[in-house]
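ARCHIVE CARD
SHELF: 3
SLOT: left
DATA:
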Amino acid sequence: MKATARDLVIRTDDDVSLEAELVVSDGPAPPAAIVLCHPHPQYGGTMRSLVISVLYAELSAAGFACLRFNFRGVEGSTGSHGHGETEPRDVAAAVATMAEAVPRVPIALVGWSFGADISLTVVDERVAGWVAIAPPLRYRTTFGAANDPRPKHLVLAEHDEFRLPADVEREVAGWNAATLAVVPGASHFFVGRTDRVVTETRVGVARIATP
């Protein structure tokens, strides 16, 4: 399926400019729109990090609208790292951009690591649900998605170096509308296991996009 990709500059409500890339398939409306949130900037995370790059390529090729962006202070984005306090504004701005690009399409927030934690704090009414990949659940103290009725799918790594799946499972046991999947043999970085991440992300997005 032919798709149109373009570079964007996203403006946040506190006047930060975010470097972004958007791809939308030509033709009928996509089944869902996906906003991708990258891992921790202070540990080398960008919108071009492994898992985010693979998801951006594979999901857009499958017909989904995909937007990836750099958090404030990363590469071509202005501003400075906000230690998880100001980054939700970046996610909200990305959601608004996607909603304008593909109106009336369910939007899934998909984040990896730091990006997962930040995405789980954003409960924008335009978001249909969340896919959180290897969320440490440590970069914020509260997560707005926890008690939200919209679906959320957590994709965990069996051998995660930062937070073992059993720890995450205990923490989210009381969350509303949450499902979990563990990728066998995977580390936090999912090297050699990105195919399973794509599969589980599609499972989560399908659940999010189903009325």
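SLOT: right
DATA:
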Amino acid sequence: MAGGVLHVLTHGLIKGALFMGVGLVMQATGRRNMAEMGGLLRPVAGSRSELVVGGLAVGALAIAGAPPFGAFHSEWLILSGGLGAGPQGLAYLQFLAPLLTAMYALWFVARLAFGAAPEGLAPHPLPGSMWAAFVAALVGALVVGVLPQPFYHWSFAAASQVLSGVAP
């Protein structure tokens, strides 16, 4: 239960960062169809599209539960809780979720970074406010991973309240 509570926080930060990163790509390219994007890893003067792709790659690793991000801790609590309860065969299957998440998220980033750049794709500069929100969400996910103790305390306390039926 505590892993689930912590996962709501970490997943929200990381998923928010990923959505903001996609928004940055859409704003920079003026395109919404992924098939019309690619080659964003190559620097284009002033656009910083390579930094967006780098941030999306970091977000992809974070959403898959890679250390040092907060989702590592929430995934670990969930996975270890599953191993401690119920049939072991089913518990081991849950380890596929982070692996599959890493595969599809990194495939998405690789397609944006290394895919063929369509004719006329010229990313343009992005507002600092959009960058700030994107970076803040990624940093938040990193802070939860590097300094997890207060978040562990909070998630265990919240889970305890939920399980005991006590209102917060």
